[in-house]
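Milestone M4 deliverable, item 7.
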Amino acid sequence: MADIVTPARRSEMMSRIRGKGTKPELLVRSAAHRLGFRFRLHVKDLPGSPDVVFPKRKVALFVHGCFWHRHGGCPCCYVPKSNIQFWREKFKKNVLRDRRVRTGLEEMGWRVAVIWECETADSDGLRKRLKELLGRR
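Output delivered:
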């Protein structure tokens, strides 16, 4: 199936996809802050530059988009109908990179956690998950 937009338009659309400061990430940061947890953002000297880092607890937290990072069983985790081979390869590389980053952080003594984009829709569930991950003070 052919793409329904021009290559230039597709490029423009893809360039608008952000890696930092996404809505799910902002929801996680806001919930963590309201719970009284202090954190750092996108620490560059850690493998994968985790989205949210809790240095006292030595927890590296990634807020993953279900589509890009392949959240199994999630309706947002689909393969586009055009250019299928490209997308499968892209997703495979993303998943392998995620594993490599997790391993690197764990070898450095960090606990690694992932909060999926779809989990941020339930604010009560998100707060509960953060409390479980970070411990209640």
